């Protein structure tokens, strides 16, 4: 049987300036620009096979067939690839992460980046990097940032054509480390797709969005100059601005657990004592603790000693999503 197939790998990313809220929920056109670092060592590997005998798209995650909303999101991306390539066949999608699902690492970013790159290659499309980033964005906004490599900025744009992410510095530019303090591996009650819809219900969202270009400038500058102190300040401010919006939406979203606050307090204390550390938190209770390379062993061992910290994963800057077979 004739079949068109390709396999791609992508890394998750941690946002230093957060994406929260959409101007267009379907196309995932964000309310503000965002900036992140890909996480090396953590990988989603996805194989897409377009086959003439399939009557619908199929999704198999870690060997188990998945249906419902997850399959619908995957089909959305596959349908765009079909429209862009002229291919009419459905696809079989098989995907695995080398990191535990539900470990507080946003797997949707690496999942949809790997899907977009694999599906485009399988369909024989030779897309520019920014078009692959646009394609990934339809599955998950933050996935647009897992397509380019290293330190990545998502230019919010005004619509589908100009909303994509670009690399502002390669992974070798700065050996920053992310020590992820796992405080809970429970599945979150409110996922980010639903959360983005609640953002505009907070009176603080307009203020957060209006100030985002300034924070992006400060963060981009800190990365380009490898200025950890400036980065620490703006990353923590931006994290608290997003959580302030979450906590004042209706219904209110409170992702923190007591151990989340324990880690935040400890990181602040350590920084005052001279250790270069900063924290940021996504839509969950786990805390991403950033530090320059060299400090990560000290940081990870201090984090492990805190009450409520179950484990610590460590990752440096990762490369772009790429076809591997
Ligand atoms: O891409 P989504 O819809 O999973 O949204 C990601 C939202 C945050 O992780 C909280 C922030 C971000 O910019 O990654």
Provide a quick synopsis of the model:
The protein contains eight helices and 16 strands.
Give an account of the 3D structure:
By secondary structure, the protein is of the alpha+beta class. It has 2 domains: 5-172, Ribosomal Protein S5, domain 2 (2-Layer Sandwich), CATH 3.30.230; 176-315, Alpha-Beta Plaits (2-Layer Sandwich), CATH 3.30.70. It is 35% helix and 24% strand. A 6-stranded mixed β-sheet has the order 8-7-9-6-1-16, covered by helices on one side. The chain is globular, with a radius of gyration of 19 Å. The mean pLDDT is 96. The structure holds (3R)-3-hydroxy-3-methyl-5-(phosphonooxy)pentanoic acid. The site of (3R)-3-hydroxy-3-methyl-5-(phosphonooxy)pentanoic acid (PMV) has 15 residues, from helix 4. (3R)-3-hydroxy-3-methyl-5-(phosphonooxy)pentanoic acid (PMV) binds at residues 15, 18-20, 34, 106, 108, 140-142, 192-193, 196, 282-283.
Which terms summarize this structure?
325 residues, alpha+beta, Ribosomal Protein S5, domain 2, Alpha-Beta Plaits, 2 domains, 6-stranded mixed beta sheet, 8 helices, globular, binds (3R)-3-hydroxy-3-methyl-5-(phosphonooxy)pentanoic acid
CATH class of the largest domain: Alpha Beta
Q: What's the overall geometry?
A: globular
- Strand fraction equals 15-25%
The end-to-end distance, rounded to whole angstroms, is 19 Å
Helix-and-strand structural type: alpha+beta
Listed once per kind, the bound small molecules are: (3R)-3-hydroxy-3-methyl-5-(phosphonooxy)pentanoic acid
Number of strands: 16
Average pLDDT for all residues: 96
What is the count of helical runs?
A: 8
CATH architecture name of the largest domain: 2-Layer Sandwich
Helix content: 25-40%
Q: Spatial order of the strands in the main sheet?
A: 8-7-9-6-1-16
Q: How many domains comprise the coordinates?
A: 2
Low-confidence stretches are none
What Rg is obtained from the alpha carbons, in whole angstroms? 19 Å
Question: Can you tell me the CATH topology of the largest domain?
Answer: Ribosomal Protein S5, domain 2
